[in-house]
Every structure is written in structure tokens, then in C-alpha cells.
Design brief:
The chain is an all-alpha fold. It has one domain. Helix content is 91%, strand content 0%.
Length: 108
């Protein structure tokens, strides 16, 4: 086993650990915002470590750049989707709070 192979196994293993941590946060945390935080941070770092492990094994600079571009696009997509989910959750919470206030005001 070469040094590059050992680096790839180590980086990919660390990436998997971060993925598992993010999944645990998704399942264990109480609200949408903390779940999103755990999931996006851990998944971005996990995917970054796996990407670094793949870059070590790349045969050419072009292939390494393609892998890095895929990682950057995945980070952009994750940031965009998590922003949309957080905004929707906040909007729904505001609507629920307004309905509770209306119900409390309507009762004598």
C-alpha cells in the first residue's frame, strides 16, 4: 500500500465519520434549524475530506479539478437548499404563531 493509498483511506474514513455525525445530528436534534446546521456543516466537511482523498488518487490535474468542481457545486447546492428550508421553516413558525394569537383573541 502506497502513501497515496493510505492518505486516501484516512481522508475517506474521516469523511465518513463526519457523514455519520451529521446524520446523528439530523436524527437527534430537536428543531429544523439545529438539524440543518449539523447536517450541512458535517456533510460539507465530510464531502470535502472524501474529495481530498479522491484528488490524491487523480491521474491528472484535469481530473482533480473536475472532482473539486463537483465538490464546490455540491456545497453551493447544499447551501441554497438549506437556506430555502430554513426560510420556509421560519415562515411556517410565524404563521403558526399568528394563528395562535388569532385563536386566543377570538375566545372570550
Amino acid at each position: 500500500m502506497t502513501l497515496a493509498d493510505m492518505a486516501t483511506v484516512m481522508l475517506a474514513g474521516l469523511g465518513v465519520i463526519f457523514f455519520v455525525g451529521g446524520t446523528a445530528g439530523l436524527l437527534r436534534f430537536p428543531d429544523v434549524h439545529s438539524r440543518l446546521h449539523a447536517l450541512t456543516k458535517a456533510d460539507n466537511l465530510g464531502l470535502g475530506l472524501i474529495t481530498l482523498g479522491l484528488v490524491v488518487q487523480a491521474d491528472s490535474v484535469g481530473l482533480a479539478l473536475k472532482v473539486i468542481v463537483v465538490w464546490l457545486l455540491a456545497m453551493l447546492a447544499a447551501a441554497t437548499v438549506s437556506q430555502l428550508i430554513a426560510r420556509t421553516a421560519l415562515s411556517e413558525a410565524d404563521k403558526r404563531q399568528a394563528r395562535k394569537a388569532d385563536d386566543a383573541g377570538a375566545r372570550p
